[in-house]
């Protein structure tokens, strides 16, 4: 295999350079002389994350597609700490990025399964205030392009960044309680009835009846004559109210906002 450098990083005081090679080794070099000082062994797949400690020049963090996260003492060429990103029932998750906090007491990583991993000193109590799984119900809504090639939400025909704030759901699309919905910027002062997406039962094309968050139904289900979406209707209503406010601010006739041409303008 032809050696190839996949990532490179200088340490905090620039005395060392660490390179990640496609043979899964990390190499520590003297930045002044170019002398190879250490081979760091531990990874079993390619490494695309090298992160230096914000103030300790000895410390370097590495993470790779093998799910391993290492903290190294690059002056000694030794392994200080090791974590393995094992996901129950799914094997390991490749680590795509890592960053230290400014004080060097924590670091956070993201993986191939959409997880945010937070490591550090102290307790986990602050993180218990939020649910483990947080997705927006609009994350997988279909998009279209208009005649000007601008991206629009298929249901509301609006630019996604101009739509009302979305709802927080878990990985299966089930809505979180209202106290979590108010964590979404723009929903802090919403009425309770605007914070509770509703569950319903729908019939699939083969006749099977399944439970689903009504707001997750697609435009294709509407075309098939399935149960209309209460949450989608709520979104349409919120969108109309928002459009009316923008129209009033800009003193634009409402008919000009309903012609469907181009994208809406900001107030």
Automatic annotation (TrEMBL):
<feature type="repeat" description="WD">
    <location>
        <begin position="1"/>
        <end position="39"/>
    </location>
</feature>
<feature type="compositionally biased region" description="Polar residues">
    <location>
        <begin position="252"/>
        <end position="261"/>
    </location>
</feature>
<dbReference type="InterPro" id="IPR036322">
    <property type="entry name" value="WD40_repeat_dom_sf"/>
</dbReference>
<dbReference type="InterPro" id="IPR052060">
    <property type="entry name" value="Bromo_WD_repeat"/>
</dbReference>
<keyword id="KW-0853">WD repeat</keyword>
<dbReference type="GO" id="GO:0005634">
    <property type="term" value="C:nucleus"/>
</dbReference>
<dbReference type="Pfam" id="PF00400">
    <property type="entry name" value="WD40"/>
</dbReference>
<dbReference type="InterPro" id="IPR001680">
    <property type="entry name" value="WD40_rpt"/>
</dbReference>
<dbReference type="InterPro" id="IPR015943">
    <property type="entry name" value="WD40/YVTN_repeat-like_dom_sf"/>
</dbReference>
<protein>
    <submittedName>
        <fullName>BRWD1 protein</fullName>
    </submittedName>
</protein>
<dbReference type="GO" id="GO:0007010">
    <property type="term" value="P:cytoskeleton organization"/>
</dbReference>
<feature type="repeat" description="WD">
    <location>
        <begin position="40"/>
        <end position="82"/>
    </location>
</feature>
<dbReference type="GO" id="GO:0008360">
    <property type="term" value="P:regulation of cell shape"/>
</dbReference>
<keyword id="KW-0677">Repeat</keyword>
<dbReference type="InterPro" id="IPR019775">
    <property type="entry name" value="WD40_repeat_CS"/>
</dbReference>
<dbReference type="GO" id="GO:0006357">
    <property type="term" value="P:regulation of transcription by RNA polymerase II"/>
</dbReference>
<feature type="region of interest" description="Disordered">
    <location>
        <begin position="239"/>
        <end position="267"/>
    </location>
</feature>
